[in-house]
Description:
alpha+beta, 4-stranded antiparallel β-sheet, 2 domains, Barwin-like endoglucanases, 258 residues
Amino acid sequence: MFRGLKLACLMVLLLQGCTVSRYQQDVDSTPSYKNIEHLVEPKPVRQPLSRRGNADEYEVWGQTYQVLKGLREYSQIGTASWYGQKFHGHETSNGEIFDVYKFSAAHKSLPLPSYVKVTNLKNKKSLIVRVNDRGPFHGDRLIDLSYAAAMRLGYANKGTAQVKVELVAAPLSAQEALEAKNRHLQIAAFSAQQSAVKFKNTLSNIVKAPVYLSQAANEGKTLHKVRIGPVSIKHAKEIQSTLKSHQIQPGLLLPLSL
């Protein structure tokens, strides 16, 4: 009898151990502080792909999900829910800390971090949120917003809302992230290749960075562009200062698309 009692107790402890959660709360709740009027909407910016949370595919509760890397366009209509105090202070899927008072979101397939515009289709309120987490995995819900975002969109008290989710800024690819750190300066452009080569050689004796020619068609003619790079932003500014000291125009820092 005593051995049976001990076995029963052991089984209870094991079952309790299986239900232990990393969260302090079993059920999600609203934060005690609800004044969100001062919160600033995040500015969309393309950031490097997070090291965590971007596996090509992952499985939750027996369901496999694909991460849409390389995405440039996305627009879907579906149900938005929200998550709050239970998850506050815990890690999101990409390793950041969830803050219930920031405008963030969880999505099953968007690459992390992405910035999306979420529009409440009932009241037409819109908000930019930063997607840095995975979910929601309940039912057919499309996106899970932070409590603050749900408040701003006017559906926190109702729990869910029909929304439109539109991609505003996707993460940088590995190559784009590298280019973001290493940029190119265009110093001059010549119609005569000989002049471009001569100027290229002059620059090579002045700056400590690769100097090269790039050709481009312009109204039926070929332009020979003299460029410097790739260099870091800091080095690019140093090069421009050096060129100014030699009475040479500092040139133009090229955007990533060029």
